[in-house]
């Protein structure tokens, strides 16, 4: 665990979140606070709503009811005269910069080098001078252990290296919160460790992180808090050791027993 969490004011606050896909309720009255410097790992079976929750935080999906605040701002809406007003797409794009998202798939541009993939956002979105942005990107590539791969194209990189480029790409936008959606699930087993090592370094540096993962060893070592989700609900949460080693709920016990064999 990082031990870096600041429990005064949450940086992400989720209240009574509901999300449906047609008649299927994906998220059911989900409430969760995440504090600056905290690492929160979301665990649970596939289909339990973990990814949808991340996508709502990042505004890639819009909730049907409830509210999310990120860095003190209400996601997607303003309040005027007691009524909610939908933000413009430009405002939503600005809000989205507060969160950096790392997906299962790397989604790198195949025709751009590692450096070019990362520098695109700071230059095109943040309007940074290209030379200054490229210098910062070189430092980010060194941070994720890829200082010598700046000129390599995605096809020349392993899956683990591509995912590390994707992490650097998210960091280049200076997010307040990093969101990871099963970032190792698409990797060969021998490549998982190199990505988790980068995530551990980020956690140790004090980065606020919300991580959807099946890597329970990582959760136990790094998470300040583990949240177990089942059928769109938060069923149990607490310190990593408590939830993973001494779960209270029968459903959590059954899940962990199945995963850990």
Summarize the structure.
The chain has 261 residues and is α/β, with parallel strands linked by helices.
Overview of the structural elements:
It contains nine helices and twelve strands. The strands form three sheets. Strands 8-9-10-3-11-12 form a six-stranded mixed β-sheet, with helices on both faces. With 261 residues, it is of the alpha/beta class.
Question: How would you summarize the topology of this molecule?
Answer:
Layout: E1 12-21, E2 24-34, E3 39-43, H1 50-57, E4 65-70, E5 73-74, E6 77-80, E7 83-86, H2 89-96, E8 99-102, H3 114-124, H4 130-143, H5 159-171, E9 177-181, H6 189-204, E10 208-212, H7 216-222, E11 225-230, E12 233-238, H8 240-245, H9 250-260
Parallel strand pairs: 3-10, 3-11, 8-9, 9-10
Antiparallel strand pairs: 1-2, 1-4, 4-5, 6-7, 11-12
């Amino acid at each position: 665990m990082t031990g870096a969490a600041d429990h005064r004011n949450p940086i992400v606050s989720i209240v009574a979140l509901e999300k449906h896909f047609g008649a299927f309720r994906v998220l059911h009255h989900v409430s969760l606070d995440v504090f600056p410097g905290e690492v929160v790992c979301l665990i649970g079976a596939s289909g339990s709503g973990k990814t949808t929750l991340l996508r709502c935080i990042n505004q890639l999906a819009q909730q049907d009811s409830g509210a999310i605040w990120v860095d003190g701002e209400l996601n997607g809406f303003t309040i005027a005269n007691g009524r909610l007003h939908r933000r413009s797409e430009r405002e939503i794009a600005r809000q989205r910069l507060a969160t950096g998202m790392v997906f299962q798939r790397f989604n790198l541009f195949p025709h751009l080098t590692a450096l070019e993939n990362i520098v695109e956002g700071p230059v095109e979105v943040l309007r940074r001078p290209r030379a200054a942005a490229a210098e910062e990107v070189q430092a980010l590539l060194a941070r994720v252990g890829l200082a010598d791969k700046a000129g390599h194209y995605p096809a020349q990189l392993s899956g683990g290296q591509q995912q590390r480029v994707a992490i650097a790409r998210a960091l280049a936008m200076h997010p307040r919160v990093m969101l990871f959606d099963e970032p190792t699930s698409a990797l060969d087993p021998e490549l998982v460790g190199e990505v988790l090592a980068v995530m551990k370094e980020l956690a140790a540096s004090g980065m606020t992180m919300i991580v959807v993962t099946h890597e329970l060893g990582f959760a136990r070592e790094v998470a300040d808090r583990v949240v177990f989700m089942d059928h769109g609900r938060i069923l149990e949460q607490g310190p990593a050791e408590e939830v993973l080693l001494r779960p209270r709920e029968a459903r959590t016990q059954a899940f962990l027993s199945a995963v850990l064999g």
